[in-house]
């Protein structure tokens, strides 16, 4: 697959794909004899991983470290496990914060829905973030 095809398939610019490769967020992409990028299935797997992980906020540095460890071989299994586990833990914390914010919003929304029906807005005494 050409870089243009990958760019269109994943809705990501060719410049971003080149950048990801240049800084080590994805391993060096397979190239033709003429030096043109020729994305293979394994290359696309890395692109998909990076897009997915970036969407959820994994830091660039963590992805670079993961690729570096992967390229060092099987002796880095434990280090990769540790890295991924730490990143999962951070995401779990973010998830809890998001769930808390959603719950608070749901509570506020229900109060406003009630107020729209009754014409009266009743807040509890301990209600915050009005």
UniProtKB/TrEMBL annotation:
<keyword id="KW-0175">Coiled coil</keyword>
<dbReference type="InterPro" id="IPR009061">
    <property type="entry name" value="DNA-bd_dom_put_sf"/>
</dbReference>
<dbReference type="Pfam" id="PF13411">
    <property type="entry name" value="MerR_1"/>
</dbReference>
<dbReference type="InterPro" id="IPR047057">
    <property type="entry name" value="MerR_fam"/>
</dbReference>
<keyword id="KW-0238">DNA-binding</keyword>
<dbReference type="InterPro" id="IPR000551">
    <property type="entry name" value="MerR-type_HTH_dom"/>
</dbReference>
<feature type="domain" description="HTH merR-type">
    <location>
        <begin position="1"/>
        <end position="69"/>
    </location>
</feature>
<feature type="coiled-coil region">
    <location>
        <begin position="74"/>
        <end position="115"/>
    </location>
</feature>
<dbReference type="GO" id="GO:0003700">
    <property type="term" value="F:DNA-binding transcription factor activity"/>
</dbReference>
<protein>
    <submittedName>
        <fullName>HTH-type transcriptional regulator AdhR</fullName>
    </submittedName>
</protein>
<dbReference type="GO" id="GO:0003677">
    <property type="term" value="F:DNA binding"/>
</dbReference>
